[in-house]
Design a protein that fits this description.
It is a single chain. With about 70 residues, the protein is mainly α. The chain contains 3 helices and no strands. The chain has helices at about 5-30, 40-50, 50-70. α2 (about 40-50) crosses α3 (about 50-70). This is Phospholipase_D-nuclease N-terminal.
């Protein structure tokens, strides 16, 4: 394996780790939210599993003020 293969493997591993941390933080915030109904939480979880990047971006945009309070 050459340098660039190892470099890109490290970059991809770091991006994947950052993505997993983001999903963990969003899931924790989602289940801490008392104002969101159970059906809406189920919708967000399904949306996060089916379309992860788009749903994470939408969740952060829509719930950023509430996330900062919690």
């Amino acid at each position: 394996m050459d340098f660039w293969t190892i470099f890109w493997l490290g970059v991809i591993a770091l991006a994947f780790l950052a993505y997993l941390l983001l999903l963990f933080a969003l899931s924790a915030d989602l289940f801490r939210d008392d104002g969101t109904s159970g059906w809406m939480k189920a919708f967000w979880v399904c949306f996060l599993l089916l379309v992860p990047f788009l749903s994470a971006l939408i969740y952060v945009i829509l719930k950023s003020d509430d996330m900062a309070e919690r």
